[in-house]
Design goal:
Length: 72
């Protein structure tokens, strides 16, 4: 069985297995991206919790922590 996959630039005719594999690899790539984002956010949150003990956090400190921990 053959499928036609369309995107903005072209139309691609693929076999069922080719289509399934391309979808699977896209899915795995997105999962890896989500894991990286989650790790960054957890690190950021832990840094913010350390700063929370001081009481008030100014924007400059917030930006420093964000730039240090979040790498997208």
């Amino acid at each position: 069985m053959r499928f036609i996959e369309k995107n903005k630039h072209r139309t691609i005719e693929k076999d069922t297995m080719e289509l399934a594999m391309s979808w699977y690899y896209r899915y795995r790539e997105k999962e890896e991206q989500i894991e990286i984002i989650e790790k960054n956010l957890i690190a950021f949150e832990s840094q913010m919790m350390c700063m929370e003990n001081k009481g008030v956090i100014d924007v400059a400190e917030f930006q420093k922590i964000w730039n240090r921990t979040v790498k997208l």
